[in-house]
Specification:
It is elongated and about 130 Å long. It has helices spanning 3-10, 31-43, 46-59, 61-65, 73-82, 87-92, 102-131, 160-177, 199-222, 484-503, 535-554, and strands at residues 146-153, 181-187, 190-197, 227-234, 238-240, 249-252, 265-275, 281-291, 298-303, 308-310, 313-323, 325-329, 335-340, 344-345, 352-358, 366-373, 376-378, 384-386, 395-403, 423-425, 436-438, 443-445, 452-455, 471-480, 507-516, 519-528, 560-563. The longest helix has 30 residues, at 102-131. It is built from eleven helices and 27 strands. Strand 10 (308-310) and strand 11 form a beta hairpin.
């Protein structure tokens, strides 16, 4: 006798192909199609969708830490200047373009596919369940944990089956009024109604996922119609919403027509800021005059975290600083340059750096690297700094360079940087000639008899102090987000749907009536899908309400009410 025969004789109930652990288990070969099906099932599972959603949230974190080219190109440039070794590495990892990077897009697309593959089968199943009838009444309701029963004494000579049918009619009406779907199941001397409700819970669950899909679609498609731009506006100057003239940088979506922008205007009238004694800035308010085509001018304001809404766009206040007004004259006294130059703040006390370029009107092109100190203070080392951000003792210092500015070779040059590789320094420590130092209203001669330079006093007349002697500028970020209303709508739908999925109970209820001579037996039972701590109370309430209705219609009170006993 073989070992298998011996095992079969010892355990005749064991099937012939039983695996007892001694033989090697060989998995079937899936093949290409099998692996593709397996991968699709993994991708479209709810667990994978949740993991991808978490990854998308984590992947968005660098976008809020590292400046993005689409929103803050000047910040990216400054990051490269401040971190020359780290910035190229981050750039290769696409951390300055997080939301358009390959890895962020991959997570985004996978999440989109996962949600579609997860939602569509569940929607089909849910629609089928909505059309299905409630299940038949269990034969033994007493086996359910939440079970109640009562006995009703019938009047002598009463038709028991008719009384049982009427009792179920009453229960059916009550359950239907309570939002249940009902179905009568009568037979074999017993009358019953099966009821269920709570499909709104699954509806909310599905709507939540559909809303997430809507958010993804709105962000993806709406991004093609979205654009952002940046512009620095000096006090007293006007910005026109036109790509060809006034934007410092402009980042349009794929479907944006730059020539179709609404040409509204914004003029910066003044910029108010308060400083504490420690130098900490308080409130920032930019006062502007805005004008839409065909409309009258309107006085508006922009505050930090309180953007201006105009022509469907949002205008944010991103930064501010001083814009000293400088006039350069040639040796004959003719004005060859006059402008207010935005200077970039270098510290909390508004020590600011700026570049002045004079390309025409002099014997050679002239460039100046300038520092502005709102409240000049000399350190022990002899270097100047600003001791306070407000205009208490404003001073402008300049180092002059002569030569080729490099603006005629067709290569774009930053207005905040001066390439001195092809220029000769005329003032500064290395030249033996002191840097030019000016207060508002003062004039100094340029070296090498090139002419003169004046630091204009911008104070309104008459002025008692220097608090308004230098103009301010603001840095504005202009956003047009076509997807915003859609994202908000889908987000609200997701919130409402989540509330439905969390708080709507899914349950089934049954009421059965059976006549036994002159006694009518009533049974009530409930069954929840998932946790439902209120189910027992619902069964009690149904039994009480049904009993009261029977008493009111027949004048007979249930004799005994008891819970289920195993």
């Amino acid at each position: 006798m073989t070992d298998e025969a011996a095992d079969a004789a010892a355990d005749p109930l064991r099937p012939s192909d039983h695996v007892d652990g001694t033989a090697e288990i060989v998995s079937p070969r899936l093949g290409v199609v099998g692996w593709l099906r397996w991968g699709w099932r993994q991708l479209t599972s709810m667990r994978t969708a949740l993991v991808l959603l978490l990854l998308l949230a984590i992947a968005a974190v660098p976008g809020s830490i590292v400046p993005q080219r689409s929103a803050d190109p000047n910040g990216v440039t400054k990051y490269f200047q401040d971190n020359p070794s780290m910035a190229p590495v981050l750039d290769k990892l696409q951390l300055f373009d997080v939301y358009t990077s390959a890895w962020f897009s991959a997570i985004y697309i996978l999440l989109f596919i996962s949600l579609i593959g997860c939602v569509i089968p569940r929607v089909k199943h849910h629609l089928k369940a909505l059309r299905a009838r409630p299940p038949r009444t269990p034969a033994r309701l007493s086996r359910l944990a939440d079970h109640r029963s009562s006995l009703v004494e019938l009047a002598p000579g009463a038709d028991g089956e008719a009384a049982a049918s009427r009792a179920i009619d009453v229960a059916t009406a009550q359950l239907r009024a309570g939002g249940y779907r009902v179905q009568r199941y009568d037979g074999r001397g017993a009358f019953s109604v099966s009821a269920e409700r709570g499909y709104l819970r699954e509806t909310g669950n599905l709507l939540f996922h559909i809303a997430l899909l809507g958010v993804l679609i709105a962000v993806g498609v709406g991004g093609g119609f979205t654009y952002t731009g940046q512009r620095v506006i000096v006090q007293g100057t006007t910005f026109v919403n036109s790509v060809g003239t006034d934007y410092s940088s402009f980042n349009p979506g794929r479907f944006v027509d730059p020539d179709a922008l609404i040409p509204y205007t914004m003029r910066l009238d003044r910029f108010d800021v308060t400083y504490q004694t420690s130098g900490q800035a308080g409130d920032f308010v930019a006062h502007l005059t805005t004008t839409l085509p065909g409309h009258k001018a309107v006085d508006d304001r922009i505050l930090v975290n309180h953007p201006l809404s105009i022509a469907g766009e949002r205008v944010y206040l991103m930064g501010n600083g001083y814009a000293p007004t400088v006039t350069v004259r040639n040796p004959a006294g003719q004005v060859v340059f006059h402008d207010s130059i935005p200077f970039l703040p270098q510290d909390n006390n508004m020590t600011s750096l700026g570049v002045i370029k004079v390309p025409d009107g002099l014997a050679k092109q002239l460039g100046m690297v300038a520092f502005f100190y709102p409240t000049q203070f000399e350190n022990r080392s002899g270097a100047f700094t600003s001791a306070y951000p407000a205009l208490v003792n404003p001073v402008l210092t300049l180092d002059v360079y002569e030569g080729d500015l490099g603006i005629n070779d067709g290569i774009p040059r930053s207005v905040y940087a001066l390439d001195t590789s092809g220029m000769t320094q005329l003032t500064g420590r290395t030249t033996g000639t002191a840097s030019i130092e000016l207060a508002p209203g003062q004039t100094a001669d340029l070296p090498a008899h090139l002419g003169s330079i004046t630091f204009d006093d911008a104070s309104p007349q008459p002025a008692k102090d220097s608090s308004q002697s230098v103009k301010r500028f603001v840095s504005l970020s202009i956003h047009h987000d076509a997807s915003g209303p859609w994202v908000l709508g889908f987000a609200a739908l997701a919130l409402v749907s989540l509330m439905l999925a969390l708080f709507v109970p899914r349950r089934r209820m049954w009421v059965k009536a059976r006549a036994d001579g002159t006694v009518l037996t009533l049974e009530y039972a409930g069954l929840a899908r998932g946790e439902d701590p209120t189910l027992g109370g619902a069964v009690d309430a149904l039994a009480q309400k049904h009993g009261d209705a029977l008493e009111a219609s027949s004048g007979v009170q249930p004799a005994v009410t008891s819970p289920s006993v195993d």
